[in-house]
Amino acid sequence: MSGDQAIRALLEWYTLAGVDQAIDNTPRDRYREAANTLSAAAKPPATTEPEPIVARETAPASPPPMPPTDTLLPPGDATWSAQEIAAACTSLDQLAAAVRAFDGCALKRTATNTVIGDGNPEAALMIVGEAPGAEEDRQGLPFVGPAGRLLDRMLAAIGLDRSAVYITNMLPWRPPGNRSPTAEELAICQPFLERQVELIAPRILLLVGGIAAKALLNRREGITRLRGQWFPFSTPRMEGTVQATATFHPAYLLRTPSAKREVWRDLLDIEDKMKSGETAP
Ligand code: URA
Description:
This protein has a single domain, classed as Uracil-DNA Glycosylase, subunit E (3-Layer(aba) Sandwich), CATH 3.40.470.10. 45% of the residues lie in helices and 10% in strands. It has helices at residues 3-16, 30-42, 75-88, 92-101, 107-110, 134-139, 146-157, 183-200, 210-217, 223-226, 250-255, 260-276, and strands at 117-119, 125-129, 165-169, 204-208, 230-233, 242-247. Strands 1-3-2-4-6-5 form a six-stranded mixed beta sheet, sandwiched between helices. A hairpin with an 8-residue loop joins strand 5 (230-233) and strand 6 (242-247). Helix 3 (75-88) packs parallel to helix 8. The chain is globular and about 65 Å long. It starts with a helix and ends in a 5-residue tail after the last helix. The chain binds uracil. Uracil binds at residues 129-133, 136, 142-143, 145, 147-148, 169, 251. Uracil is lined by residues 129-133, 136, 142-143, 145, 147-148, 169, 251.
């Protein structure tokens, strides 16, 4: 095998393993870094502040209390911790800072950026997708890749653009290689998403794709059954409910253009609800 062929074979192998983008110029041994961090934590405190070994995103101005740890919390503890942290946030900026500082979900370690939301925080329509893809991870914004461009065209079809909606995802970090989020990752991050809904207080919630629909509506059916219906959505902290509906994910539409007919119906239904000014009971 020539040198070129060997490099190509290695890159293909990386891609199959889900490693599809370079995030650093030099390799890093994260296992050794984690071991160093743990043994440093076991030593008595030094008189001068040691350099952090693992680079973190910048700390928020005044984040809510965080567990000071470089190791992951067990999933149940991480969900509980996310609930406590999210509940303490009284603004979207505070919530964004808290999510960036949260260390309870392993996806953060492989992601380039934390992707919070985009659009108008005062919008009547809030759209929730699954998780950032490669382009979203690079830019730190939701729905900016091919599926996002189709979502923009879907919104334009009913006279909306990003200044009139708020867009976010179930997960703020990209699962490596765009794999589906695990139930555990969804459970850990859901309190942050729910708090986002509470703070935005939209009139209508549009869940795109089966992952967001099943998680937020707490249903077992797939998206084919859930789409095109309306459900009352609420959290224990909300006084009323938000009208929630679901449709196919734009990434699915890119692969299955014939499903655009159903989505077009769903969009017209949303347009009607927005025009009617009707609110949930
Ligand atoms: N797919 C999603 O669900 N969200 C994004 O932000 C991009 C692609």
